[in-house]
# Entry
Amino acid sequence: MGNQLASAASYELFIYSIQQRFPQIKISTLVLKRSGKMFAEVSGQLFFENAVRLFVRERVDFKNAVIKGYSYEVWQRTQKLYWYDSQAHPNDPTLASTHPHHKHIHPDIKHHRIPAPELRFDEPNLPFLIQEIIDTYLPKD
# Structure
């Protein structure tokens, strides 16, 4: 499949065909907005059954084939269940193993952070995030 982050065209194809790979996604509002030839921002939401949605924000650098920064929030109705972000917390030794990738969870969701070894800058994070939602919040057939 190649590195989807290698070009804007390949990441656009990846983003805009995500529902074909994951039919559990009911609606996608993801949009890739280019900033010149080498940069883009991805934003929007993926909607699932059980009123679960994934809010996505990414800054992508195609010159270096990396995600420069991200925020992924998972909601169910009006409750934020958890979120991932790449904001560095160098003074938190519990996050050092996956610095700067981490997950905010309850209780005290703003301050309770755990390492997120599944997230990366050098490949798309959406397949992992979508599968996590499918495995955790969607009914089993």
Q: What stands out?
A: The longest strand covers residues 66-76. The chain has one domain: 4-137. The CA atoms of residues 21 and 127 lie 9 Å apart. Helices lie at 8-16, 18-21, 126-137.
